[in-house]
Amino acid sequence: MKEFPVRSPAEKVGGVVHFGRMLDKIRLHARGELPEDYQPNLGKGFDAKCCAFLHLDYTEVAKRVNDGATDAEMLEWAFTAGRRPSADEITMWNEFMRKFGWRDHAAEILARRKREAGMENRAEIETMFQFIDADEGRKLSPLL
Prior knowledge:
Helices cover about 50% and strands about 5% of the residues. By secondary structure, it is mainly alpha-helical. It folds into 2 domains: about 1-85, no CATH class; about 100-135, no CATH class. A two-stranded antiparallel sheet has the order 1-2. It is globular, with a radius of gyration of 15 Å.
């Protein structure tokens, strides 16, 4: 549906889902290319969850990205300024995020978002990551 260069939330940077997408949105916003409907949620939602997981302040993340830091530089900074999660913690984070909206407290939000987007009959969309990918015109990855 939407055509712009932002990664799927499932795509990993340094093994961490959503991190790269958050950086993409910051960069697009700085260039004035982030669609208006994405702007109110910058630093909120999954961005806020990612920052909380890594013990980062979103404002500082945005500042460093806008100063030109690469993905690799941002991840290393995050692991230094915030925290370096263990491999097991990253796996738990990734699986929690990948399945967000699937039979949990966010299922109602997912149902509403699907309804608003005219996708209420798309039973294969079971998670927020899948919804985002479908909404942005990407192929869905299977849940399991």
